[in-house]
Design brief:
This protein is of the alpha+beta class. The chain has helices at about 10-30, 60-70, 80-85, and strands at about 1-10, 35-45, 50-60, 90, 95. The protein starts with a strand and ends in a 9-residue tail after the last strand.
Length: about 110
C-alpha cells in the first residue's frame, strides 16, 4: 500500500469550505478509482492560518496514476475551485510505502 501525502495552508475561515469541497467533490471521485483505499485529512491551526495535510491510501502507483492522469504520479492535483480556498499548496505529493498499519479501512 502507498500513502500519498500532500499539504496546503488555508485561512481559518476557509478550512470548513475546503473540507466540504473534499467531502463533496474530491473524495467521491477518488472512491470511484480502482485501487483507492481511503483518505484522512489532518489540520493544525496556527493563528489565522491552518496547516492541512491530506493522506490518501492506494494499492499501487498505477492506481495513483489513474487519479493524477499523467506520467508523473507525484504532481499535485489541485482543481481551480480548491485553489480558491487555499493560501498555498504543495506542487508535488510525496509517496510513502506503508510498512505497517493497524487502522481498519473500509
Amino acid at each position: 500500500m502507498i500513502a500519498r501525502i500532500w499539504a496546503a495552508t488555508a485561512r481559518r475561515d476557509q478550512v470548513e469550505p475546503y473540507l466540504a469541497h473534499l467531502r463533496e467533490k474530491t473524495f467521491p471521485q477518488l472512491n470511484a478509482i480502482e485501487g483507492h483505499r481511503g483518505a484522512c485529512v489532518l489540520t493544525h491551526p496556527s493563528g489565522e492560518i491552518v496547516d492541512i495535510t491530506v493522506i490518501t491510501l492506494w494499492d499501487s502507483v498505477d492506481a495513483i496514476r489513474r487519479f493524477s492522469a499523467g506520467r508523473d504520479p507525484e504532481v499535485a492535483v489541485v482543481p481551480r475551485d480548491a485553489q480558491d480556498l487555499l493560501n498555498s499548496w504543495d506542487l508535488r505529493a510525496v509517496h510513502w510505502d506503508v510498512a505497517y498499519q493497524t487502522m481498519r479501512l473500509p
